[in-house]
Design goal:
The protein is built from 18 helices and 4 strands. It is mainly α. About 50% of the residues are buried.
Length: about 575
């Protein structure tokens, strides 16, 4: 256990050491300050603007920004959808993968434009190299850059005054991709290749096994997709086994770096927030709240998996040594850390199957998604998702003391709170309504591999993962059916744009307001009291919304497990 604690502490130490300078760099990128990469990136950036006809000095209102986001994603959807429908006739297909069915192509296209990367298929047996590279990997960059852009717009709304202009979506997306995501991905890809991840265009290899049979070993450009899958909190693996596959995650070092990469940009954006609002304590306070919540949930997963299933322990087997569904080479600490990280962020990459966890060990990853993945969260989406809870917290305080709530000098009024509630309620409704429909129809129930509360958990997790734009799977649901492909695609769209549009509306409303000076009655949003309040609001809202569903699923299964009944 001591070694496990050292690993966890080392993870946070390295994360914070890297996040601070990266956050400062991201701030410079989006405020137009000079950086060390100006001589390389600025000429490339200007060429891109010239080729596509972008005026980088022309800013947009929140409605124009939202329209640009929507139209871009419509065309992105069509590009992925059509490529998959006709991939059998396209190049770079050494395994001769056929055309993808319309419902799976629709689901996958929606998945990758929404930063979800839900995969109702195994990549090595469904997608060609051409599809993997030109559509899936490319949109890993673009969907992540969109998340960064929305977070930056919300920060601009908090810092600007008496204006309708919030920046230019095309410029923000280019800078997020070119200046932030691409350089980091190149560095991480090279490290993965050095550690043993493959990167080639070779045909699949047929190998003889010791039993005298044959095994097909998939090849492909894996390392390059792996890097952005993690840095962009996308999660879409080249292989069906995702980060449990040795070609994607070959060593203990890559396992550590993958977990680190998932949190790196979300943590950095908190330092970006502090720098852009000219009050570093604001970013530090939110970072502290996220860290407290993450440590709490990581601890619950670790303890649950450490002690394991008592029915197994009764057989004389130590629960911490039971690794069914988990990679022995990563051990308990490497598995629980990765699992907590990938579901706290909207990543979805997995190095173990949650279906094999204990009921509580599997519930906490799902709960982190249900809360909105605001505990560090996705690239950009974690920051703007947590800022929604920040606004909700200061509103509650305002009601308690009888003052108009303020955050960073901006008054939080009825319009902002309506948008906040939309951003909180739309994902919750999608998760609960989708799960209810699946649980009450033959099409939904026929896809579960388990009965009782475990089967309900499989369905709950699917709709939580898709609505939360996470993309990880519980591991026991056969989701590649017309019913699930369509309903989960709808959940992904509502979970992404049902939050982004209210966030943009909030940014537009705040930007038009004046900044009020700090007074004696102003509630401080960077002290210990605020950090505790923010954590409490997140947990209470989550508990009130999802506790009944969790009680019927993993909590009921846990109680039954203690009585010796297993599913």
């Amino acid at each position: 256990m001591l070694k496990d604690m050292i690993l966890f502490l080392l993870f946070f130490l390295v994360l914070f050491l890297l996040a601070r300078p990266l956050g400062k760099y991201i701030s410079k990128v989006f405020t137009g300050e000079k950086t060390c990469f100006d001589k390389i990136m600025r000429p490339i950036e200007k060429i891109i603007y010239k080729l596509v006809g972008i005026d980088e000095n022309q800013e947009m209102t929140w409605r124009q920004y939202a329209a640009a986001v929507i139209w871009f994603h419509v065309f992105s959807f069509l590009a992925i959808f059509l490529t998959e429908l006709f991939q059998g006739n396209l190049p770079l297909n050494p395994a001769n993968e056929g055309n993808v069915s319309w419902d799976l192509a629709l689901n996958t296209a929606v998945s990758f434009i929404t930063n979800t990367n839900w995969q109702a298929y195994s990549g090595e047996s469904t997608m060609s190299y051409f599809t993997q590279m030109t559509e899936l990997a490319v949109h890993n960059f673009l969907s992540a850059a969109t998340g960064i852009s929305i977070a930056i717009v919300l920060i601009r709304g908090l810092t600007r005054k008496t204006t309708k202009l919030l920046g230019n979506y095309w410029v923000d997306m280019v800078r997020g991709t070119l200046w932030v995501l691409l350089p980091l991905s190149i560095i991480l890809s090279l490290i993965f290749v050095e550690q043993g991840s493959i990167q080639n265009f070779a045909s699949y290899i047929s190998a003889a096994t010791i039993e005298g049979g044959t095994q097909t070993i998939a090849m492909g450009p894996v390392a390059s997709q792996e890097a952005i899958k993690l840095l962009g909190t996308n999660g879409g693996g080249f292989f069906g086994a995702n980060s449990a596959h040795p070609f994607e995650n070959p060593t203990a070092l890559t396992n550590f770096l993958q977990a680190l990469a998932i949190f790196l940009i979300p943590a950095s954006l908190l330092f970006t927030l502090g720098r852009m609002v000219k009050d570093k304590k604001q970013g530090h306070a939110i970072l502290a709240a996220m860290t407290i919540l993450f440590v709490l949930f990581l601890g619950i997963i670790y303890v649950s998996e450490y002690y394991g299933n008592p029915n197994v322990a009764a057989l004389g087997i130590n629960g911490s040594n039971v690794m069914e569904g988990k990679e022995l080479r990563f051990g308990l600490s490497g598995t629980t850390l990765f699992s907590a990280v990938t579901t706290a962020a909207s990543c979805g990459a997995v190095n173990a199957m949650f279906d094999s966890f204990t009921p509580i060990g599997g519930m906490i990853p799902m709960l982190q998604i249900m809360l909105g993945e605001i505990i560090f969260g996705g690239v950009g989406s974690g920051l703007y998702g947590m800022l929604v809870y920040v606004l909700l917290s200061v509103f509650i305080v305002g009601l308690m003391v009888g003052r108009t709530p303020e955050y960073l000098g901006k008054k939080i009024e009825s319009h902002e709170m309506k948008m906040v509630m939309l951003a909180v309620l739309i994902p919750a409704i999608c998760i609960l309504f989708g799960s209810a429909v699946a649980a009450s129809t033959d099409a939904g129930m026929s896809a579960t591999n388990n009965n009782g509360p475990h089967g309900l958990t499989e369905m709950l997790y699917a709709y939580a993962s898709c609505t939360g734009n996470n993309g990880s799977a519980f591991g026991g649901l056969n989701a590649n059916s017309t019913f699930y492909n369509i309903t989960l695609a709808a959940a992904m769209l509502l979970g992404r744009f049902g939050v982004i549009l209210p966030i943009l509306a909030i940014a537009g409303s705040l930007a038009k307001k004046k900044i009020s000076p700090v007074g004696a009655g102003t509630f401080q949003t960077h002290g210990l009291l605020f950090i505790v309040l923010l954590c409490a609001v997140v947990l209470i809202v989550g508990a009130l919304t999802f506790l009944p569903a969790l009680a019927l699923g993993p909590i009921a299964e846990h109680l039954l497990m203690l009585q010796g009944q297993l599913y």
